[in-house]
């Protein structure tokens, strides 16, 4: 069975007809040509496909496209105006926080969400005081980024990149 949906991806509106079993990731990559979110495990375990869905980080490999009709999706490609870099993207470059780059778009989107969560005062499992504003220390960033795996093990530079983007170098 097919359904017509609309999505706004990186600021651009799209209407498309999809099979009701199509994941949001497949709709973006195969139907819209949006290849920034990577298909890694296709099981929600690696985080390579992480995007911001209506402002929150999500794994589109686990979401059906029809369930997100009208959604606003931001990928790593849509974080900054053309020709410019988002502060997280700049920090990843400054800190050399990638090697092969396959996981980088998902890492970047996740890092943007991490900084938003910290700004909102949301605690994580690593937060020692649940009533205090979270700190961007190593353990806090590592915990919040733990859903994004890097086969190259660039974590030693990813954590400082998130800290730099958050204003803590």
TrEMBL record:
Any single Pfam family the record assigns to this protein: Fer2
Involved pathway(s): Alkaloid degradation; nicotine degradation
Alphabetized InterPro entries for the sequence: 2Fe-2S-bd, 2Fe-2S-bd_dom_sf, 2Fe-2S_ferredoxin-like_sf, 2Fe-2S_ferredoxin-type, 2Fe2S_fd_BS, Aldehyde_Oxdr_Iron-Sulfur, Beta-grasp_dom_sf
Entry's Gene Ontology molecular function annotations: 2 iron, 2 sulfur cluster binding; metal ion binding; oxidoreductase activity, acting on the aldehyde or oxo group of donors
Domain 2Fe-2S ferredoxin-type: 3-79
Keywords, sorted A to Z: 2Fe-2S, Iron, Iron-sulfur, Metal-binding, Oxidoreductase
Keyword field contains Iron-sulfur: yes
Metal-binding among keywords: yes
Highest taxon listed in the record's lineage: Bacteria
Name of the protein this chain belongs to: 2Fe-2S iron-sulfur cluster binding domain-containing protein
């Amino acid at each position: 069975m097919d359904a017509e949906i609309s999505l706004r991806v990186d600021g651009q509106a799209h209407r498309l007809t999809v099979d009701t079993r199509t994941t949001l990731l497949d709709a973006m990559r195969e139907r819209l040509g949006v290849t920034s979110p990577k298909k890694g495990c296709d099981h929600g375990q690696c985080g390579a496909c992480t995007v911001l869905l209506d402002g929150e980080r999500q794994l589109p490999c686990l979401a059906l496209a029809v369930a997100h009709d009208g959604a606003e999706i931001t990928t790593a490609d849509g974080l900054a105006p053309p020709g410019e870099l988002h502060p997280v993207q700049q920090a990843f470059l400054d800190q050399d926080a990638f090697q092969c780059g396959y996981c980088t778009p998902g890492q970047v989107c996740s890092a943007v969400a991490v900084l938003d969560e910290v700004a909102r005062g949301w605690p994580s499992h690593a937060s020692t005081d649940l009533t205090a504003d979270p700190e961007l220390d190593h353990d806090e960033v590592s915990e919040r980024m733990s859903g994004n795996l890097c086969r190259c093990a660039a974590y030693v530079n990813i954590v400082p990149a998130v800290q730099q983007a958050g204003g803590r170098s």
